[in-house]
Amino acid sequence: MSMNSVSKYSFGKVTWKCPSNIALIKYWGKRGHQLPLNPSLSITLKNAYTVTELAWEKGEGLDFYFDGALNEAFKEKIKKYLDSLPYSFLKEYKFKISSKNTFPHSAGIASSASSMGALGLCLASLIKNEMDEDFYKLASNLARLGSGSACRSVYGNMASWSDEFAIPIKNIHENFKGMKNSILIVDRGVKEVSSRAGHALMENHPYRERRIQRANENYKNLNEAIASGDFETFGAIVEQEALELHALMMTSSPSFILMKPKTLSLIENIKTFRQESGLNLYFTLDAGPNIHLLYPDSQKDKISSFIKEQEVEVLEDEMGCGPELISFEGETYGN
Q: 178-318 falls under which CATH superfamily?
């Protein structure tokens, strides 16, 4: 992908809405510069999203607003990110970035995926602007450089990632359309291990090579299940991936146990309910204690009753159609 683009805009602003995503095949461990050890596959959410406005003019500097207030901590992170990008002309601009989420931090939803996805889309609009396939590849690549999993949020429904940018999953069976994602909040506390530190644990992990092999096998089999509409195989792989992620953390050095007693209790309840009801209710987890439930839209009424019985806070979401350009305006040179 060419990195030699030069913006034609002297000033302007753009606003993108970008959803978060939940990985089904987990990305855990890095190679090279922000590249994954193994392919990952995710569903894009609908209700959990970030709205980011990027305004630019000739000059220097950066202001970053989160939920309407200046945020110096985020500003420093974004400044380092912008300085690292291979587009020298970005240094000619003064930027004002305003960002807000529809979901709370530490709720089991990846805020870095939606926020860096939104910023990647905004930057791609400044650099390229034409909404074609290459535009989304560029946006995905820019998002990846800020947060690996963010590259998948650039696409709706489902996306996979194995290299510099993610790609959309195009062969999705009707059985998965409108798939629900109910998030059971076990603990709102900040993660005990950051994503960056967690990925680093894989560098010398005793099961590193076997994990890469297993992830590739699961990736192939999950794609086949998605294409054929096999919800049972889909669910079995998704649950295995979630538990394997936590097993890797428990067997790393140092080790981390991120599931809580309530997490384990809920998992047992989910398995019992599935066995007794015959319904397609499955779970996945990120690197934390909160549970994402996945199930078909056609079974939501019966499954909703089970969820209410668990007496935990629930965030309701579902598979969504991807990012949305809200507005764009820019003054070109010579105008």
A: GHMP kinase, C-terminal domain (3.30.70.890)
